[in-house]
Design brief:
The complex is a heterodimer of chains A (about 425) and B (about 700). Chain A has about 425 residues and is of the alpha/beta class. Chain A contains 17 helices and nine strands. Chain A has helices at about 20-25, 30-35, 40-50, 60-65, 90-100, 100-115, 130-145, 175-180, 210-220, 225-230, 260-270, 300-305, 325-340, 345-365, 370-380, 390-405, 405-415, and strands at about 75-80, 120-125, 160-165, 205-210, 240-245, 250-255, 280, 290, 315-320. In chain A, strands 6-5-9-7-8 form a five-stranded mixed β-sheet, with no helix packed on it. Chain A has a four-stranded parallel β-sheet with strand order 3-2-1-4, sandwiched between helices. The longest helix of chain A is centred in the C-terminal third of the chain and has 18 residues, at about 345-365. Chain B is an alpha/beta fold. Chain B is about 30% helix and about 15% strand. Chain B is built from 22 helices and 26 strands. In chain B, the strands form seven sheets. In chain B, strands 14-13-24-23-22-15-16 form a seven-stranded mixed β-sheet, sandwiched between helices. Chain B has a five-stranded mixed β-sheet with strand order 2-1-5-3-4, sandwiched between helices. In chain B, strands 19-18-17-20-21 form a five-stranded parallel β-sheet. In chain B, strand 3 and strand 4 form a beta hairpin. In chain B, helix 8 runs parallel beside helix 18 (about 595-605) and helix 11 packs parallel to helix 14 (about 465-475). Chain B is globular. The two termini of chain B are about 55 Å apart. The chains are: A alpha/beta (about 425), B alpha/beta (about 700). At the A-B interface, helix 13, helix 14 and helix 15 of A face helix 2 and strand 7 of B. Bound molecules: flavin mononucleotide, iron/sulfur cluster (2 copies) and FE2/S2 (inorganic) cluster (FES). One iron/sulfur cluster binds near residues 188, 348, 386 and 387 of chain A.
Amino acid sequence: MFEPVLLKNVYVPDGHLIATYEAGGGYRALEKALKEYTPHDIVELVKRSNLRGRGGAGFPTGMKWSFVPKRADKPKYLCCNADEGEPGTFKDRIIMERDPHQLIEGMAISAYAIGAEVAYVYVRGEYVLAIRRLEQAIAEAEAKGYLGARILGSDFNFVVHVHCGAGAYICGEETAMLDSLEGKRAQPRLKPPFPAVAGLYASPTVINNVETLVCVPHIVARGADWFRGIGPEKSPGPKLYCVSGHVRKPGLYELPMGIPLRELIEDHAGGPPTGRKIKAVIPGGVSAPVIPEQGLDVGMDFDSLAAVGSMLGSAGVIVVDDTTCMVRVATRIIEFFHHESCGKCTPCREGLNWVVKVLRRIEAGEGAAGDMEQLDMLCKGIFGNTFCALGDGAAMGLRASLTHFRDEFVAHIEERRCPFV
Amino acid sequence: MAKLKVDGKEIEVPDHFTLLQACEEAGAEVPRFCFHERLSVAGNCRMCLIEVKGGPPKPAASCAMGVRDLRPGPNGEAPEVFTTTPMVKKAREGVMEFLLINHPLDCPICDQGGECDLQDQAMAFGIDSSRYQENKRAVEDKYIGPLVKTVMNRCIHCTRCVRFTTEVAGIAELGLIGRGEDAEITTYLEQAMTSELQGNVVDLCPVGALTSKPFAFTARPWELNKTESIDVMDALGSAIRVDTRGREVMRIMPRVNEDINEEWISDKSRFIWDGLKTQRLDRPYVKKDGRLQPATWGEAFQAIKAAVAKTSGDKIGAIAGDLASVEEMYALKQLIAALGSESIDCRQDGAALDPSLGRASYIFNPTIAGIESADALLIIGSNPRFEASVLNARIRKRYRMGNFPIAVIGEPGELRYEYEYLGAGTETLAELVSGKGKFAATLKKAQRPMILIGQGAIAGEGGAAVLAAAAKLAGAVGAVTAEWNGFAVLHTAASRVGGLDLGFVPGANGKSAAEMVTGSDVLFLLGADEIDLAARKSGFTVYIGSHGDNGAHAADVILPGATYTEKSGTWVNTEGRVQVGNRAGFAPGDAREDWAIIRALSDVLGKKLPFDSLGELRSKLYAAHPHFAEVDAIATGNGDEIAALGQKAGEMGKSVFASPVKDFYLTNPIARASAVMAECSALARNNFKAAAE
Ligand SMILES: Cc1cc2nc3c(=O)[nH]c(=O)nc-3n(C[C@H](O)[C@H](O)[C@H](O)COP(=O)(O)O)c2cc1C
Ligand code: SF4
Ligand code: SF4
Ligand code: FES
């Protein structure tokens, strides 16, 4: 039986208070890091752990940190990506609401590793409780000397600021987030330069997801080998899965990386409601291509999902049962991307605008011959030509729906109505 | 340098080149909308996609990738890119189709038609029909001021306009608001733009979303005759193109001149043209019974002859205005000399500039392009934003490169870059000259410091002493060396340097402009409208010029002249660069080119000038002043002259410096006749009031 690590405090009463956190061994990893390791040691440790970013792309965290120039005449920044905009994702929120000190400790160790003295947590604006709890936790940690000047008697100084987003999905894209933090309109930036070299205020910056950062204290406390021993070697560690949709026990699950998707849904989340059958699952938030029922034996890790043409993304697992119209699902998802497209680049701005209109027509029973070919053509026109991954994600997802559930689209067009109503 | 292969052709380009520039260098055409050489890279239109060998299996935006980002092949081969492969062609067609789905395709009623990047590139790189069957998006047009008209359905969101205002003009007054489909370009609250350079967004906008409001629906580009010329609205001599239909000037556009205006012009230069058509003097006038009445050329000349006959040479004088060309000043100088007078002046404002001190003492020695290599700047008595808007953009360009400390002595103003304000006038300058203050040290530390002297610093009482003090400061901080001359006099009048070069200043026994107003029996005003004539209670005044403005109102005889678009003429800009403007049309009615008027008058006065054509005039002019023949060149000032001038530094007295330009939009008679400029002026005044409240 897998023993939860990241969610350990989440079920403890008053888990968000510093006393509870300390009682459970909290902030010892920070102490250990400051007393026993150099910043370089921590970077190497995290590299050896094979920790990969939990924000979506799965980029090796230690490697990302090592891109930060050692010597720089500018301050370095750590940014925690807590925008959590991906539909179907709610893992960062639970951590921040129930165990904010775990995140603060993770940030402190990570900042020590990269040489940052200031961190920003960019929190999704709707997460009111998370914001309040984080601010409270920061105040507690400052009072106890885990934040501030000369932390725990070391010469490491570190402060954390909370910044609330204003409700745009694109702010979760790391460079758009930097622009937003700087007070500008959030739009993705050109790369290079990469944030590690010129990020926030043109200074070296590391951006990591909440879940990525909370892995760090455990790696420090228990070692890289422990971490690498959980799940697949190349994509290891404890992992948070957000299961929603047509299951009997939706919720947040902490299980090893790489657990089969079917096991996650059937054994842990209770399977579909009685009398229903699973039709499809979106494994990693709506940017991740849908997987039809036959494909559920895939392992939930970055490489296994990529191999079947999908992705782990934010591990927002959305389960769709057989009563659901896949055209409706696809339309709703594209409506989201269309609404959230930042408008910067032509293929995403104009392409999604076109796609959404065609999909709405088909769903309303007003599809026409040639619409399927047009949708195929639109996916091609968008995918690979956009400025950032938002447009690509939208096109990739739609392409999977068109491939796996083509018959449902065709039925809408031929019958001139939705067969599900 | 970096080596790469473009469509199989091997080339070498500088490391900082983008792939787009490299492709262009190799002769491969890459379509683009958002990329512009003078703006930051946005990479948003996705029109410039190309294929990179060995890269990811998707096209790359060539404007957003540098040649230095390319990886060599496995055996060190030069990296390869392709611009004509099926992948590239498909990607472009796709982007083009996307761009057009929400574009109204209202080309028949669009002023951009015929000079539209979208039209051209759709022809070259698009497919012939759209598969889009849905409804088009509608975007409301925005009011952004009297100069730029918007048709926002046409906008393709390239953000060139946003980047221009933010980066070049230095005021973030246009922006993209809203997301995705709702993204719109606007001034947010739909207030008028305030930049003096805003008209440039009309040229930058690759589609018909931003067009010239005054030009709206008046002509099609292919109906227009295009004449390359020189602007005279300030002393920069920006390169312009004057577009005419028949005799009428329909619009004015910038041309590229890297040395002067790059490709920008100010709104005054661009939108002045309605002023060419109103308030025009189109026939001679003679004052009879206390009123100016239409007359023939013969009558007008006879009236002048009678007045000249009544006085002696020393009571005759001439003042040249701010727009006068070298040729007409040369002719007038000859005539006045022939009449026995040394009273001539081209300095209406009384600026203490003296050609006998040497050319270096009155030109912008570091040159305009040289601003980019300066490493510190002191501005004395000038507001370059209003006095030379395009030059100010060059200062801002340098400022944006970083490590460019700027300080101002004079009126504090919003200059579109940060600066340190040192003080108001002579006292502050004196302190700096004596080496006191942090900025003196900054200038001293700089390798190429620049000292910009405005007319506002030298037109006042102690002007000559201020100029000398500035020269002394230049010497003290090492602004004049063998490789660098940072002594920079910024003029506001297009005629000024040419006039000084000609020696259009009083001789030993001559009177200055101000003295002539009260102390001459016969006064010739060659387009001189900026001098206060209220004190002129007696004497006979001849106005030669184009507009019924201040000078004409005070005249006894009016001889109607030509504007800069109606004559070929030489102007020397603030750098000392000789340039020739070309005639784009004819002056209205009986009006004539000014040199010809003076030549005809000289005959009547019995002092016939020795040339019958402009060509003959010029060969005499060139013989006397050879540098005028060196068009587009600068006869470099001698640094020793600055040192000599510095020696003269003495007591400056106590005064504060004020910019001569009180209203950017109304600095000359053409501008004051322009309804468009009047509207801009009123808006600017209101903004100023609103800002003060
Ligand atoms: C459109 C878009 C939205 C994103 N939203 C989020 C988000 O809400 N939270 C997040 O952690 N990462 C998000 N990302 C990924 C981030 O850009 C970035 O890769 C991540 O924060 C890096 O952290 P990691 O290395 O710890 O995964 C998004 C990316 C894109 C393209
Ligand atoms: S892909 Fe979409 S979200 Fe990303 S830059 Fe382009 S328009 Fe913006
Ligand atoms: S208005 Fe013109 S320049 Fe500005 S973004 Fe739109 S198309 Fe580009
Ligand atoms: S020109 Fe390259 S993306 Fe627009």
